Amino acid sequence: MRVRLLSTSDSDFARQFAAIRQRGADATTAVEPQVRRIVDAVRRRGDRALIEFTRRFDRVALEPAQLRISAGEVRAALQTVPPDALRALRLGARRIMAFHRRQLPESWNYRDKLGLQLGQRVVALSGSVCMCLAATQRIRHPC
Known about the structure:
The chain is mostly helical. It has a domain at 69-104. The chain has helices spanning 13-45, 47-58, 71-78, 83-101; strands at 108-111, 117-120.
């Protein structure tokens, strides 16, 4: 596959760039209802739904005990990753974290003219679920 480079100095740059941006929007619009159904099913049925969708989309049959992996398994898996790839993954992770840290909502409060204290308190969730659809290989991560 040949990658086409765009330059802002191209006479039709705006049209080409708009087409690329729209391509992503179309894909998002098309898959969003299905993703919403999957997330809702996992919220309702938990691990059973996660195992079902993993079998359906990834063609991997998991048992409930396989949904959590130990720190030792993570360390062993890290030993199989080439050093250059690991450095690239760590750099990417740092950049993603730095970007999203700027998006975090913050707690705040103030006292209004009547003396009432008003504000917003933001707290972290105690846990989360990570699901990667259509993976070509079995991916295990302690989300």
